[in-house]
Amino acid sequence: MNSTTESSSSSSSSSSSESSSDKSSSSSSSCSSGCQFLYEIGEKLDKYVITKYLSSGTFGMVLEVIDELGIPYAVKILSQTDHTEVEVLKQIQQFDPFGEAGIVRFYDYFAWQDYHCILLERLGLNLHEYLQQNSLNITELQSIFQQITTSLLFMHSLGITHTDLKPENIVFSHQQKHLVKLIDMGGATQANEHHSTVINTRQYRAPEVILRCDAWDTSSDIWSLACLIVELYTGSVFIKVGNNDLMHLAIIQSIFGPIPRWMKERSKIKTKLNSLPYPKPQLQLGQLIKDHDLLDLLTKMFCIDHNQRIDCHQILLHNFFQKKFI
Questions:
Q1: C-alpha–C-alpha distance, residues 279 and 243, integer Å
Q2: Quick one: where's region Disordered (predicted)?
Q3: Domain positions in the chain
């Protein structure tokens, strides 16, 4: 398992690399959503003091702040919000008041000038940042895999789909370095809410989402998780594709076999499915994953028919998590 990984899109995390440059004078940060927040290090943000710039993304930006006791937090600053993220975080807090589910802790929500601010737990490096300088051994991968799946099991039990699993959204805890947490509930969707047509960062998007053949559900997170685990194992993005649905589907078929007929028949793009492009030869899963039990588990997670895909509870019962590696 090597230590390199392909670069991904800007993280929307509540954390950032410890090497993020401090902006010690008058500063501003803009993002592709058009939000631009002007600030100075040391100035007040409601009852908190800004201490560090952390990250920016399509969502807005994240700053480090401290309270009157010097306790650090991450504040996510948005130019607009539909309050869904806050409601999801509140629901998670309600059912996990002690923060034991491995999901970033929510502390406060407030308006500041024309911006919406979500106060979150201050965390450490995300997995994408970590893999730039480090590799994971199989024991570490097993632990991270188990932790993420346990967190997802909790979310799925509440009827919530994360919708954006990727290395940038898995973050190490500051206090306990071996623990990871899920972050970024900006796209999280509850079962009874409107389901957007497009979810996930492209490389982690499940086939049913691309095909638009059925209402996606929590099983789409399982596909994303499988892509993530292969990436952690190999150090490289698994399904490498540009912004092209037909090529994406062609690559999926070349690795996992034909798309079931019923999915094609229900697809909103079914008229295009008879003329899929020819992708270059793809490495098969068995060529990449050398551990037999991990390969078996990932194969079950990569089931194209999402109705047959393994769920979080079944994942955690798999033999891969019963093994002890030396």
A1: 14
A2: 1-33
A3: 43-121, 125-321
